[in-house]
Amino acid sequence: MSEPHERDTRELIRELQSKRRRRGLMRLVGAGLGVAVLVAAIVTGIVLATGPSGSGAPGSSVSATARVSTTAITSAPTTVATTGEPVTSTSSTTTSEPATTSTTSWLSTKVVAIDPGHQAKANYELEPIGPGATTKKAKVSSGTASPTTGTPESEVTLAVGLKLRDALEALGVQVVMTRTTQDVDVPNSERAKIANDAHADLAIRLHCNGGDPSAHGLFTLYPASIAGWTDDIAVASKRAATIIQAAAIAATGAQDRGLQERSDLSGFNWSDVPDVLVEMGFMTNKDEDLLLESGTYQDKLVQGLVDGIVEFLRAE
Ligand SMILES: [Zn+2]
Predict the structure, then answer these.
(1) Shortest CA distance to 164 belongs to which of 179, 175, 151?
(2) Residue 86 C-alpha to ligand 1 middle, in angstroms?
């Protein structure tokens, strides 16, 4: 059963890599256009300032300039925003291309693996919870679901995961996804191996929680140190969890439920790279579920996760 999974996964990685190359090219073209428009606007501005009376039709010349200037104003910040890096962008917004390139260059060497938790259909076949383990768990459990809307956890984690991918790639980070659609069958051990194979600097697993209807808030799990399994990633994982938890709380205003150390999760125990699991909120809480399913809140969450991930990567 693992053969088809591995083939699917490799195809997924190949597909993602070629998509990333295409997107990178588009970004370059986009940045080039932005700069060209900016230069055109400046040149037109100089011509207008030095000789407005020289033109035979001042009225039409002014309106043409106004149109170009508007384009420049809207396109230039967009170029900075898509490739710039929020924490240091204040120092780079005054100049355009060279500064942007230098702030993102260190991020372009970083690889982040994103695992949107669960999938459309659970897979209750068993797998060892770590290399050589006799204890086994389901390859992929079903996850929770919203009692009000019926939305499964796997849809929310995928929506946030794809947004997180786009936000990180916009900063130049290389991203590997364990899945990009609902209809996959990727066991938790396999998800860890995808991050391992990519030599990810960080693996982040996205989940939502279920429980008592009154329970709400966000918390982050990290692997306990287990000799031969996670002892080499435990310290870095806890550091990542601490930073990401704080950033996610700051961005969302969710209740801070802190950190949790876990020794029973296959996704952690098979991991060879720093690994965290963010429980983004409770789908069984009516208010929090509405937030988790809304695009605006997902964007806030993603911003928090990006802030935390970048801060963690900066210190690595
Ligand atoms: Zn889950």
Answers:
(1) 175
(2) 30
Mean pLDDT of the chain: 80
What is the whole-number distance in angstroms between the Cα of residue 45 and the centre of ligand 1? Answer: 56
Distance 141 CA to ligand 1 centre (A): 8
> Do residues 214 and 287 make contact, with C-beta atoms less than 8 angstroms apart?
no
Own/partner pairs, 65-69, CB within 8 angstroms, 24+ separation? 68/37, 68/40, 68/41, 68/44, 69/41, 69/44, 69/45
Annotate 169-206 with DSSP letters as a single string: HHTT-EEEES-SSSS----HHHHHHHHHHTT-SEEEEE
* pLDDT tens-digit readout, 280-293: 999 999 999 999 99
What pLDDT digit, counting tens, does each position of 197-217 carry?
A: 999 999 999 999 999 999 999
Ligand 1 centroid to Cα of residue 280, in Å, is: 10
Round to whole Å and give the CA distance between 201 and 239.
13
DSSP state of 214: T
C-alpha 57 – ligand 1 centre gap (Å): 66
Say if strands 123-128 and 136-140 run parallel, antiparallel, or are unpaired.
antiparallel
> pTM for the whole thing?
0.69
Query: Whole-angstrom Cα distance, residue 60 to residue 68?
Result: 13
> What residues pack around ion ligand 1 (CB closer than 5 A)?
117, 143, 207
pLDDT value, residue 32: 52
16 has a pLDDT exceeding 90: no
> How far is ligand 1, taken at its centre, from the CA of residue 192, in Å?
15
**Integer Cα distance of 240 and 276 in angstroms:** 7
